[in-house]
Amino acid sequence: MKNPFLLAILIVTSHCLDFNESEFFKSKCGKFTLLRILITKERMYIFLDASCIFYGDLNSTTIGSFPSSCTTICARLGIDNNCDLSKNQLMLVFQNMKHLIGSLILYRTKFTSAKFLRTLESVECGLADFTISYNPKMEEIGMTNLTTIKCSLIDIHGNEELKKLNIPNLNYASPSAENLEANKTGIEINIDSEKYGFCITSVEMYNFINIENVNLKKLGGGICEPGIQPSSGKLCNASHNVDEETEIQDGCTQMFGKVVINPKNVQNVQKLSSVEIIFGVLYIENTNLTTIDFLQNLKYISALGYGYPAITVQNNPYLSNFSFPNLKRIKNNGESSVVFTNNTQEFILDPKYCSFFEDQLGQGGWEKPKFDGNSCYTLIQEANTRPPYKFAKNLDLIIVVLFMSIAQIL
Questions:
Q1: What's the average model confidence in pLDDT over 319-329?
Q2: In whole angstroms, what is the distance from residue 274 CA to residue 271 CA?
Q3: Which residues in the chain are classed under CATH 3.80.20.20?
Q4: rRNA-binding: is it a keyword of this entry (predicted)?
Q5: Which of 116, 177, 321, 392 could be cross-linked to 91 through a Cys-Cys bond (beta carbons 3.0 to 4.6 Å apart)?
Q6: How far is CA 25 from the centre of its chain?
Q7: Is 30 helix (H, G, I), strand (E, B) or coil?
């Protein structure tokens, strides 16, 4: 390595077990000028002046020291109600910033959007997180170039006028540096608004649910209409009402609306084999289906804003099995996420069907699935108090044959 001072920093940092944000900044934002070296009995300390590091809140007093010429800036960037800068001043000071290392906190600001951060492409957190909260006039976020957030918490809430996000390119997230050092790999996303009609676009929702290790703890509002055609694949419109069958097309990878399967279109269900995501709900009613095996590529269902369970399957007298081999996540803001009602008794007698949604897909708490009004816990308890189901079915058959034999003898 050509720079011995940078090498010394890396050596010192490698021996520091606790996360040190100052060292974290210095290792990320280069162009260092050596000021002095302090050697103690335990270790050597190197004090540097880093031209792309900014400490403190941003206002008219501190704006002159902000490293506005840097494309990568290390800062715990906080803008709040004490910020006396205009939107144009902020646009000017941030015009070259593409990568922010540290954290971003917008709290109780006067701005209607965060478009002054439109050039920002990534945020990599140190000790704090990505937070935009309680901004009373903010109508949209507007960070249209933001693609990456490396923070353990993405928190956008309490913005009472927020109508939309407008962060269409955010498609990658990973935990903060601090949490990675502690071997914590989860990412929590909280996004909500008090504004009636707040919505998340189908592209934004698709990006969120594709992030690995993400916990979509709270997503408010609904999905914006109309749906947006993806860069690859094909988005098809489904039904507006659950009593209206869906016109099933070939080659759809995304469905927008209520995917309704009933006697009028059940013969075309195999065309749904290409569907990967439903922005809406899956509603299967009054069919002669014996199994649901035609959604083998379905990965996600986002039923935000629909007021229905993500999956409703009811009044299918021959239906006794289903298979969703690639289903990873269901997001619902109603009560139960999955409801099976008045199908065959197989779903009630064998709790594995209910447990698939609760255990494998994590639909617990108020999202718990319901099978004929029963929770998975109830079905398991009932199954444990009776003979194994297969034995019971065989016993029923033996009894029927025995009665028929007795009838023939008599």
A1: 94
A2: 7
A3: 57-223, 235-384
A4: no
A5: 116
A6: 28
A7: coil
- C-alpha–C-alpha distance, residues 355 and 370, integer Å: 10
CA separation (Å) from 274 to 168, 201, 229, 263, 299?
A: 24, 21, 16, 21, 11
AA letter at 392: A
Per residue in 22-68, pLDDT (tens digit) is 777 777 775 544 434 445 555 554 444 457 999 878 889 989 999 99
* CB-count burial class (<10 Å; 0-12, 13-18, 19+) for 210: middle
- How far is Cα 161 from Cα 243, in angstroms, rounded to an integer? 34
How many CA within 13 A on the CB side of residue 283?
22
Place of tokens 């009560």: 335
Task: List Cα–Cα distances, 97 to 29, 77, 258, in angstroms.
Answer: 12, 12, 42
219: β partners: 191
HSE-CB of 199 using CA atoms within 13 angstroms: 15
Nearest-5° Cα angle at 47, 45 to 50: 140
Which residues, other chains included, contact 405 with Cβ-Cβ below 8 Å and sequence gap of 6+? none
- Give the tokens for residue 294: 């035609």
Give the span between the Cα atoms of 194 and 238, in whole angstroms.
28
> Which residues, 6 or more positions from 88, have their beta carbon under 8 angstroms from its beta carbon?
none
pLDDT, one tens digit per residue, over 157-173 is 999 999 999 999 999 99
Place domain 235-384 in its CATH homologous superfamily.
Receptor L-domain (3.80.20.20)
Tokens matching residue 74:
């290390």
Q: Residue 98: its pLDDT value, please?
A: 96
CATH of 57-223, one of 3.40.50.720, 3.40.50.300, 3.40.50.1000, 3.80.20.20: 3.80.20.20
Integer Cα distance of 14 and 225 in angstroms: 50
Find all residues with CB under 8 Å of 99, minimum gap 6, and list them.
71, 72, 73, 120, 121, 122, 123, 124
For position 290, what pLDDT does the model report? 97
Contact 205, 224 (CB under 8 A): no
Q: Where are the alpha helices (DSSP H) in 37-176?
A: 87-93
- Collect all residues with Cβ–Cβ distance below 8 Å to 196 and sequence separation of at least 6: none
Label the pairing between strands 44-50 and 32-39: antiparallel
